[in-house]
Design goal:
Structural class of chain B: alpha+beta
Strand content of chain B: 5-15%
Order of helices and strands of chain A: EEEEHHHHEHHEHEEHH
Number of helices of chain A: 9
Strand order of the largest sheet of chain A: 6-5-7-8
Largest interface: A-B, 41 and 47 residues
Low-confidence stretches of chain A: 1-19
Radius of gyration of chain A: 46 Å
CATH superfamily of one domain in chain B: Ribosomal protein L16/L10
Number of strands of chain B: 7
Shape of chain B: extended
Largest sheet of chain A: 4 strands, antiparallel
Oligomer: heterodimer
Order of helices and strands of chain B: HHEEHEEEEHEHHH
Low-confidence stretches of chain B: none
Number of strands of chain A: 8
CATH architecture of one domain in chain B: Alpha-Beta Complex
């Protein structure tokens, strides 16, 4: 029983306390520290009452949130340095490559992918593996942004420094799992129809035709300019010849 | 028709057909965690001690020369000072090497067997080239006596049975550090903490800093006008009947 000097109890029962001068406490037995027993209910109730109250913790809703709401809350855009590295690598590929072919990749086994890779590398082509998220970030705010409608499903990429589209398509036709969708040739995006038409063209013949077409007006001008002096020289030569023949005859 | 059969039939045919999404197996729709490796950490600030592994503690302490001169070569009995395990730890409650460790949440006593259990399991994971572990408690030095079973009262104090180290709440028991991350060490530390005879936890330096910040935040923003000291002062609900001197000292947090 605890006793405190200076304790006054009024008639109504309210305790009016003053600071105790001495405090005497007696336990029935020694306080056993080794055995983990609960404290008395009075002390435990007071400990619960005197816990700190913080307004921010109290304003949290009591009802538990759904799984998707919790996930959306915790989803923050983390800085992924590995993805930044992949995006930089992808941009380098796009800038240095003269030809980029994008195909839809249907499911195929590991052996077929290895086969394609070996055949492409033998011909001088490369087969980079780029995910759609990385590609979307790489082409954002660039001139290749119009390729974004293709970045939906599994894609296959083949690149080379030279624009050898005919050879590349010839290799890919052997694998029915790869469907060509678009290509980037000499900084121009070609859709499927243009791609196939471009592959049927013989570039050397077209180039010679183009060169001759470009040369034609210049040659015509030179011909027209040289026409008068040529005629004049021919006529003078003819006149000189005639005069000479007349002199000899006379 | 299963997705596998459909896929094989389409591949055999030479027609190039776009596969509908429903044919793909459900495993492709499962969200994989994004590969986000962290850059390698800088461990140039870590000072490696000379000894990497935990020292072997003796079961029975060797007496000092002074003790032998005064008391002779026999083993000295002591009173069971329970104050050694009561209350908070005021000095050895921070990580010296500022990496990882085990902290006691309650008071208690560590026997030689507990030391051996921790030493063997932690020395297994430590690579002396990169990592180290250090004791933060002394070897068992406090004698514990016990009378034989069935012995009657009287006849003096019982013989010494074993030696223990007393530990208070908040004491750091051991530290682990070096060129390593918490993931490599957490599993063993948590296992060791669970095997101790009192409540303990595996902690890091960052956890201690967060705890301190949280304490300061609570002190500033606590809207509860009532304190445990207030309750004792005004004897709310007759709590002084159940309270002792250490409740006045430690605000009812420690026994």
């Amino acid at each position: 029983m605890a006793t405190a000097v200076g304790l006054r109890v009024s008639v109504r029962g309210w305790l009016e306390t003053t600071r105790p001068v001495s405090l005497i406490v007696r336990h029935k037995a020694k306080m056993n520290v080794k055995t983990r027993k609960h404290r008395p209910m009075v002390i435990r109730a007071l400990q619960a009452i005197t816990e700190p109250l913080i307004l921010e913790d109290l304003q949290k809703p009591i009802c538990p949130k759904t799984k998707w709401a919790r996930i959306r809350e915790n989803e923050e855009e983390e800085v992924n340095l590995y993805q930044d590295f992949l995006v930089r690598k992808c941009k380098k590929h796009l800038e240095n490559a003269g030809l980029i072919l994008i195909c839809q990749k249907l499911p195929m086994g590991m052996r077929d992918t290895k086969k394609i890779k070996l055949q492409l590398e033998a011909q001088g082509f490369k087969m980079p593996v780029i995910s759609n998220t990385v590609m979307k970030r790489a082409i954002h705010d660039t001139r290749w942004i119009h390729l974004s409608p293709l970045l939906l499903n599994h894609n296959f990429y083949a690149t080379s420094e030279d624009a050898r589209l005919k050879e590349l398509l010839g290799l890919i036709r052997k694998f029915p799992q790869l469907i060509p969708l678009a290509a980037v040739v000499d900084n121009t995006i070609l859709n499927r129809a243009d791609l196939l038409h471009y592959a049927t063209l013989d570039l050397e013949v077209e180039r010679t035709q183009l060169v001759t077409l470009l040369k034609m007006p210049g040659e015509r001008i030179v011909q027209l300019l040289n026409n008068h002096p040529k005629e004049l020289t021919c006529n003078i030569e003819q006149y000189i010849k005639q005069k000479g023949d007349e002199n000899t005859s006379s | 028709m299963s997705s596998v059969i459909l896929r094989q039939s389409l591949l055999r045919s030479n027609k190039t057909v776009l596969m509908p999404c429903t044919v793909l197996p459900m495993a492709t729709f499962r969200k994989k965690p994004k590969f986000n490796p962290k850059p390698p950490q800088d461990y140039s600030w870590v000072k490696m001690p000379e000894r990497g592994k935990l020292k072997l503690y003796e079961r029975i302490p060797q007496p000092n020369k002074m003790q032998v001169r005064i008391w002779g070569e026999g083993r000295i009995k002591e009173t069971s000072r329970s104050i050694d395990t009561r209350g908070p730890e005021l000095f050895h409650n921070n990580l010296n090497h500022k990496q990882f460790g085990i902290r006691a949440l309650q008071g208690g006593e560590l026997k030689w067997g507990h030391f051996e259990m921790m030493r063997i399991n932690i020395n297994k994971i430590i690579n002396e080239d990169n990592m180290f572990a250090v004791w933060r408690v002394p070897a068992p030095n406090k004698p514990v006596t016990n009378k034989t079973e069935g012995a009657r009262m009287g006849g003096g104090k019982g013989p010494i049975k074993y030696y223990v180290t007393p530990v208070k709440a908040g004491r750091i028991i051991l530290e682990v550090g070096g060129h390593c991350e918490y993931k490599e060490v957490s599993r063993v530390l948590e296992l060791m903490a669970a095997n101790l005879p009192f409540k303990a936890e595996a902690i890091t330096h960052e956890m201690l800093l967060e705890e301190q910040e949280r304490k300061e935040f609570i002190e500033k923003n606590n809207k509860n006008p009532f304190d445990f000291r207030f309750m004792l002062k005004h004897n709310i609900n007759g709590c002084r009947r159940y309270a002792g001197r250490y409740d006045w000292k430690w605000q009812g947090k420690y026994k």
